[in-house]
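Below is a concrete protein record.
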Amino acid sequence: MLRRLNRELTERQDLAQTHSATGIALFRQEQHLPSPVIDRNAPGSEPRSDAFTRARVRVNELVSMYQKPSLPEDVLRKFQSIVECEADRAGVGSRS
């Protein structure tokens, strides 16, 4: 029983060390990067706005820049056919 407990403890320590190393690597690569939504002002400095407002502004920017991709008419018809067929199979189509 002591051997089993020792083995489980060792496995948990290994997992904790791996998790910690992975977390630090991800933080260095991804978490510290600011964006238009995340405000990284120094503590005590005046924030521009709250995160919800900045997110709304960013969404509006992205929506205003969106350009619908142009596809050939035959491809669009094929897509429509596939969607209608699957909707009918699911019982939510206009033909069901």
Q: What stands out?
A: Residues 85 and 91 are 10 Å apart (CA to CA). The chain is about 65% helix and 0% strand. The longest helix spans residues 2-31.
